[in-house]
Amino acid sequence: MRPFVYERATSPEDAVRAARGKVTANLPPVQAPGQFIAGGTNMTDYMKLDVMRPEILVDVNGIDRNRYGRIEEFDGGIRFGHLVRMAEAEEHPAVKAKYPVIAQSLQLAASQQIRNMATLGGNVLQRTRCDYFREATWACNKREPGSGCSAMDGINRRHALLGTSDQCIASYPGDFAQALIALDALVETQGPKGNRKIRFADLHVEPGNTPNVETVLEPGELITFITVPSGAWTRRSMYLKIRDRQSYEFAVTSTAVALDLDGDTVRDVRIALGGVATRPWRSREAEDALKGKPLTPETASAAADAAFAGAKPRKYNAFKIPLGKETVIRALLETKNMEA
């Protein structure tokens, strides 16, 4: 691990100032010399692997937890401070009762030890990456733009089918983010240019020609709150995760579903796909295939086909298409049978 400076911020303003102070060029946040750290469950790994080389780490755990470590219900939704731990959110009574897809997406992530430490703000910003990114001897456009992508013709079983480019096919690994994009969440940030609100659906970007750019955030911009609006679909919701083993493993495929039904007819539906895309992925095509129709095995299958119509498989990950479709179908039919 390379030498670095450690600072502990006591306010969002302090954190932004400390992280932004080292920026001397127009860099994406992941390559900026100043980086935020909270749970530290990813950052320290990358530093040990020498794939991230921050000059300064700004610890945000000293920021007021009475404000930024709280979960607050309000008329129309629920609001999470960025310092709320994953384990706190998954066990919160209102989250479990009214937003089960959120609780399940957190319960199925990582290990209990990690969830006890990791914050919600840090979790949604975990890097889109693969084994070639983590091993510095392999070419990786995300780590070193222009060096090439070893995964294209390498072992790409875990890689993305949706939102890929000829520069990068790494899949976004998070679970919580799939629930957030399905439920139209909003993030609030504080940065060098002040405060702003960003639709969660707009926070992450596809790799395109710049896979080293993963979000629309600026260097030194800190997520402060995540807000999820309530709706007729939030109680009847679930997260289904298919993985190689039952604990501490990324999704091979996953689906976040939220349903509003009139009898068997779909009034509204939200569908997000995990493990198969380069960013948190909401499938509007699958939703459109279901709205206004009865939810049956046949219509669920049509929605699953629509979800993967644009998939671009590589040599070793084509199996994710039929598996992903079955994941969507199962999630839809199991959610239909939930008590709302």
Automatic annotation (TrEMBL):
Pfam families: CO_deh_flav_C, FAD_binding_5
GO molecular function, one term: oxidoreductase activity
Highest taxon in the source lineage: Bacteria
InterPro entries: CO_DH_flav_C, CO_DH_flav_C_dom_sf, Diverse_Substr_Oxidored, FAD-bd_PCMH, FAD-bd_PCMH-like_sf, FAD-bd_PCMH_sub1, FAD-bd_PCMH_sub2, Mopterin_DH_FAD-bd
Keyword Flavoprotein: yes
Classification via Gene3D superfamilies: 3.30.465.10, CO dehydrogenase flavoprotein, C-terminal domain, Uridine Diphospho-n-acetylenolpyruvylglucosamine Reductase, domain 2
Domain FAD-binding PCMH-type: 1-233
Keyword Electron transport on entry: no
Record organism: Faunimonas pinastri
Keywords: FAD, Flavoprotein
Annotated SUPFAM superfamilies: CO dehydrogenase flavoprotein C-terminal domain-like (SSF55447), FAD-binding/transporter-associated domain-like (SSF56176)
Protein name, UniProt field: Xanthine dehydrogenase YagS FAD-binding subunit
